[in-house]
Every structure is written in C-alpha cells, then in structure tokens.
Backbone:
C-alpha cells in the first residue's frame, strides 16, 4: 500500500553535513520525496511532536536537543513507506543498530541518533500534520 511518512534528519546529522547522504538513501530506495524543508523546530512543535514521551526522564533533554539546530524534514511516500523507513533507520539505540542501517552507519549515541521516522500510520498522519501544510506536499 502506498503510504506517506514523516522522516527528519536531526540536528546532530545536519551539523555533520549528512542530510544529503541520508536523503539520497530514501531516493535510491525508490521513495518519492513529496515534502522537504530545512528549519529549526520551535519548542511548542517539539513538545507536540514528542508528546508521547512527555513523562519520560529524558523528555527535557530530547526537546532541548531537537530544537538546538536545524533539522531537515521529509515527507517520504511509497509502498510500505512507514515500516520500510523504520527498517532503514535501524534500532533506536545506535549501538544496537545493524550495519547498513542509517543509525548503524552514522551514530553511536542514543540521544543524538541522526534520524526520526514515524512509527505507525497514526503517528505518520499526526506528525505530518504538525510539520507540513497540505500545500507543501507535492506528489
Ligand atoms: P525512535 O526515535 O526510534 O522512535 P523513541 O522511543 O520514540 O525512539 O524515542 C524518541 C527519541 O528519544 C529517540 O530517537 C532517542 O533519540 C531519544 N531517546 C529514547 N530513549 C532514550 C533514553 O533512554 N535516553 C535518552 N534519549 C532517549
Ligand atoms: Mg518514536
């Protein structure tokens, strides 16, 4: 089934100049990039984006980090885009992420793990709604 998902290159990776390489992996895989922008996330958007983690001990650090510099936001479209993007990203903790995955190839730190991707159809719709206007998605 054709799906759309929200993928984001985090501030650690934009600072390291990795956004192009990461974007290229999604294009090479055959996905259609229907939305793309570089921005600094507001605190309000970050708190909404990570609302499920509001009560976790790492929430403040997470919001601080994700708003600390530019991110590159993508809307990725294609067959099974939600699950396939998560597989491409690898495990949340990069120390557990397999080589060949984005985290497995570019990261070691749990907090600064290079990339975000929606984990379900509900999350994808919710996160795309937070970060993109409908007019910014060009199929
Ligand atoms: P995900 O990004 O793979 O979906 P989530 O569990 O949704 O993982 O966590 C969101 C982000 O919060 C992770 O990508 C990671 O950067 C950070 N994070 C998750 N667990 C911890 C933790 O125990 N300590 C610090 N940061 C964490
Ligand atoms: Mg998550």
Residues:
């Amino acid at each position: 089934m054709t799906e759309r998902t929200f993928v984001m290159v985090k501030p650690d990776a934009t600072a390291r100049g990795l956004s192009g390489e990461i974007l290229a992996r999604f294009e090479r895989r055959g996905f259609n990039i229907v939305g793309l922008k570089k921005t600094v996330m507001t605190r309000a958007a970050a708190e909404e984006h990570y609302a499920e983690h509001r009560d976790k001990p790492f929430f403040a650090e997470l919001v601080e980090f994700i708003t600390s510099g530019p991110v590159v936001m993508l809307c990725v479209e294609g067959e099974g885009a939600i699950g396939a993007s998560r597989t491409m990203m690898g495990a949340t903790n990069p120390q557990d992420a397999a080589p060949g995955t984005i985290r497995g190839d570019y990261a070691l730190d749990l907090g600064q793990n290079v990339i975000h991707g929606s984990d379900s159809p509900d999350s994808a719709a919710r996160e795309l709604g937070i970060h993109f206007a409908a007019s910014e998605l060009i199929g």
About this structure: The CA atoms of residues 13 and 114 lie 5 Å apart. Strands lie at 2-9, 32-39, 71-79, 115-117. The chain has one domain: 2-136.
